[in-house]
Automatic annotation (TrEMBL):
Coiled coil: none
Family as reported in the entry's similarity comment: Belongs to the acyl-CoA dehydrogenase family.
Keyword vocabulary terms for this entry: FAD, Flavoprotein, Oxidoreductase
Domain Acyl-CoA oxidase/dehydrogenase middle: 177-273
Acyl-CoA dehydrogenase/oxidase N-terminal domain span: 60-172
Flavoprotein found in the keyword field: yes
Protein name: Putative Acyl-CoA dehydrogenase fadE12
Organism of provenance: [Torrubiella] hemipterigena
Length: 442
């Protein structure tokens, strides 16, 4: 089923039917992977070792429909596919094109430009499912920017801009990257140093960005730069402007950064000096860029949290299946509490994070703008995913360290969600100040 069909079914009147297709296992090559049970509908108490159960507590029918449709696509791209892409640092074009062909790149974008107009709750399920299939961040990051990254364009762009930019993005003809982080300022975004100066019908951009995902393959960039110097604005959040423009490689030097994981999707440093950007590529009013970026921040937290969750569940599946079958000292090692109890804790922590993220996504879809649940969900999911991936490696013993069983890749990829787009420390700062009312420490 395509994204548009689910969008129509959800927002037209009501879901016409419940889906009852059986999902194929993604890892037929894995010896320890049991065959899926022959039931058509899976229950809420599906075992953690099962592949992508359709029905999880708290999900609406429309979320379940998304889960089932995305599972079908993902089942064609097993762990071996992702390991190969990760090892050779090659972008997963086949997967990306498949997602685009079925209309999923516009899951949250307006129908008039080819999107499905579904909510954050559905997008969260989509990205959790992609990651949970074994694709992890390699799969999720290959499409992530399309899912919610262009929310500022959809909300603040003119009708002409939306048509010009959203249509090719949703069709998978153009790819976008997102340029906020800078080497000299890091998480202190308001101090970013890249600038844009207006000259006639153009802005001249100079500066640098770091860690920009997919800049090797993107045609477009959504970039935040300062148009009024910091010492000339009343508030530090003023004077930043947002552009969506061609990533002009004759003006921007793009240098890939070798890194620990998520190797199928590139990360880059960008250097530019005298880069001419047409004034019609400015989004909204000059100086309002930070406000527009903030609009999508809570959604971003929910989506990255959901991707982390997917990795955690994938790791738990691998671990449970392995420890059920691996016999040492005459018993399956899953019988030993030293192995079983930590995995039980992982499930509880993953599931708590999933429920929190689901609340955050639904609140967002209802117009709630505070970041308490989105931040909490992202933090809980990232920590739970990392812990689970680590437990999976330890549960598999030596085989946990072998590429063949994939959990070492999961562990490398789970690390990323603790760092980006916001670190655990900054989330705790937010909760400390905004929820607990404690003084700011920085
Ligand atoms: C693989 C990858 C992909 C990325 N993709 C993108 C992208 O596409 N676009 C983009 O713009 N950015 C991207 N990022 C950047 C990412 O969002 C940042 O790395 C992240 O926000 C952290 O910023 P930083 O690395 O500058 O850390 P720093 O700001 O240098 O912080 C370093 C450490 O200090 C801690 N710290 C800093 N200030 C405080 C404080 N006040 N209190 C407590 N602790 C503090 C942080 O929590 C962190 O642990 C990506 C990063 C990675 C690793």
């Amino acid at each position: 089923m395509t994204a548009a069909a689910i969008g129509r079914r959800t927002f037209g009147h009501k879901l016409l039917q419940t889906l009852n297709c059986t999902v194929q296992p993604v890892t037929s090559s894995l010896k320890t992977q049991p065959k899926p049970r022959p039931q058509k509908h899976r229950h809420v108490h599906t075992r953690a070792g099962d592949y992508l159960p359709t029905s999880l507590v708290g999900w609406t029918e429309s979320q379940q429909s998304v889960r089932e449709a995305i599972s079908k696509i993902c089942s064609q791209y097993g762990d071996e596919y992702w390991m190969e892409k990760d090892t050779h640092h090659s972008f997963p074009w086949e997967f990306y094109k498949d997602i685009a062909k079925n209309g999923w790149l516009g899951i949250c974008l307006p129908e008039e430009y080819g999107g499905a107009n579904l909510g954050l709750a559905e997008a969260a399920v989509m990205l959790q499912t992609v990651a949970e299939s074994g694709a992890c961040m390699n799969g999720a990051s290959s499409i992530h920017m399309n899912i919610f990254g262009l929310a500022p364009v959809a909300k603040f762009g003119t009708a002409e801009q939306r048509k010009r930019w959203l249509v090719p993005l949703i069709q998978g003809q153009e790819r976008a990257c997102f340029g906020v982080t800078e080497p000299n300022t890091g998480l202190d975004t308001l101090k970013l140093q890249s600038s844009a100066v207006k000259k006639g019908g153009k802005y001249i951009l100079s500066g640098q960005k770091i860690w920009i995902s997919t800049a090797q393959i993107a045609e477009k960039i959504l970039i935040l730069v300062r148009t009024t110097p910091l010492d000339q604005v009343k508030k530090a959040s003023h004077g930043l402007s947002l552009f969506y423009t061609d990533l002009d490689r004759s003006a921007v030097q793009v240098i890939e950064i070798p890194k620990m994981g998520r190797c199928a999707v590139d990360s880059n440093a960008l250097f530019f000096d005298g880069w001419e950007v047409p004034a019609e590529d400015l989004i909204g009013e000059e100086g309002d860029g930070f406000k527009m970026i903030m609009h999508g921040m809570n959604a971003e937290r929910v989506l990255v949290g959901s991707e982390a969750l997917g990795i955690g569940y994938a790791a738990l599946r691998r671990a449970c299946n392995y420890v059920n079958e691996r016999v040492v000292f005459g018993n399956p090692i899953g019988k030993y509490q030293g192995i079983q109890h930590p995995l039980a804790e992982c499930w509880m922590q993953l599931e708590s994070a999933r429920l929190t993220l689901n609340v955050a996504a639904n609140l967002f879809d209802q117009g709630y703008q505070d970041g308490d649940y989105a931040n909490a969900g992202k933090f809980l999911a990232a920590e739970a995913a990392f812990k689970t991936a680590d437990r999976a490696v330890m549960s598999l013993g030596g085989m946990g360290y072998a590429k063949e069983y994939h959990v070492e890749r999961y562990l490398r990829e789970a690390t990323l969600s603790r760092i980006a787009p916001i670190s655990a420390e900054m989330i705790k700062n937010y909760i400390g100040q905004k929820v607990l009312g404690l003084p700011r420490s920085y």
